[in-house]
Each structure stands twice: as C-alpha cells, then as structure tokens.
Amino acid sequence: MKINLEFSGGLELLFDGLKQTSVVVEDSSLKNLFKKIESELITQNKELFLKDEKLRPGILVLINESDWELEGQYDYQLKDEDTIVLISTLHGG
Hints:
- This protein has one domain (about 1-90): Roll (Ubiquitin-like (UB roll)).
- The chain is built from one helix and seven strands; from the N terminus they run E-E-H-E-E-E-E-E.
- It has one helix at about 30-40, and strands at about 1-10, 20-25, 50, 55, 60-65, 65, 85-90.
C-alpha cells in the first residue's frame, strides 16, 4: 500500500530537506512505518527520530489531519493512501 509522508517544523532537515514523499509498505503497522522511515529515508542524525523503536518526544504526528493520539498511536493500522505528517515541535533559541 502507498503511504504519503510530509515532514515539517525542521524535521525535514533529517531527510536532506525533503518535505514530501510516498513510500510503499507491506505491513500496516505505524510502528513498522517509522522503522522504514528511519532506515530508508533519514540521511542524518537518525537518533533524533527514534529511540528504542519509539518516536522521540517533540514530534507531532498527524494521520489524515487528525492527531495520532485520537487514532490509537502505534496501534493505528495504515490504509492505502493515508497521509502521515510529522512535525518537529522542538526549536532552538
């Protein structure tokens, strides 16, 4: 199935400036999607994305424009053409 991804809030810097892409996944697990993103898309500082197979604090996740906490977080089962938006809420200053 095809999953649309968007990165913003500075998170796109981990992806060499990539703001949007799509990936094909076999497994419908959101947790496995994050592992795939880490292994195949992140070009630098992978430790800023996942720790112990969980997203680092400060990354907001939207599933089809809805907060992932309302959708079951890691238990959410992906569907074809879902849009997952990952936004960094941490900013230096």
